[in-house]
Design brief:
By secondary structure, the chain is mostly helical. The chain has 6 helices and no strands. The longest helix is centred in the middle third of the chain and has 35 residues, at 69-103. The protein is globular.
Length: 196
């Protein structure tokens, strides 16, 4: 259970960190008005379903006997795939910002926005998969007599993750910029991959 609790803390810290920086990057570096950013987010959310649905379908197919070693191994692979999506998204954000800030500005806005969009599809595919899988796993693995306590601890860590992510994002962005924010989320994702 501790892995799932750590996972929800890292998941919601990552969400807050990422969405502290993404709107700022879009408006400051790519001159995309905040009021118009929905034009990127809506298609991204729809496309992310294409990554989420296969994970959830596989989970549902094998969840009835999760205590089985083979099915447990499959669930761990599904969790790793979803966390891997989060990590790959951060690498894409880092690469786009590095290229935009340090190498060339000639590629045009469209390529950078498409790259950010692809990174966001990966991010939300992983995030939404984990958001669906983890509470189910907490409920399945917690002993019946402690299920309420396990779920309340999970929910508390979820909201503490929002706080922690916002706090870290503010400090990192103010002193080191958006690359530090995305690098931190990448580091958290790697930590999470090790513990899953």
């Amino acid at each position: 259970l501790w892995r799932l609790n750590l996972g929800v803390l890292l998941l919601h810290s990552s969400l807050t960190l990422t969405f502290y920086a993404i709107p700022r990057v879009l408006s400051e570096q790519f001159a995309w008005a905040k009021a118009a950013q929905w034009q990127l987010y809506v298609p991204v959310m729809i496309c992310s379903l294409g990554l989420m649905m296969p994970i959830l379908r596989q989970f549902r197919k094998h969840a009835h006997s999760i205590e089985n070693t083979e099915n447990y191994a499959l669930v761990r692979r599904l969790l790793r795939r979803a966390v891997g999506y989060l990590a790959m998204a951060q690498l894409i954000f880092i690469a786009i910002l590095f290229i935009n800030n340090n190498i060339v500005h000639d590629y045009g806005l469209t390529i950078f926005i498409l790259g950010l969009g692809f990174g966001l599809v990966l991010f939300f595919g992983g995030f939404n998969s984990l958001e669906a899988l983890q509470p189910s796993l907490i409920s399945r693995f917690s002993p019946p007599e402690h299920k309420g306590m396990a779920l309340s601890l999970y929910a508390s860590l979820q909201f503490f993750g929002f706080f922690l992510g916002g706090w870290l994002a503010g400090i990192l962005y103010a002193y080191f910029g958006e690359l530090a924010v995305f690098s931190t989320v990448f580091g958290l994702s790697l930590l999470w991959l090790i513990t899953v």
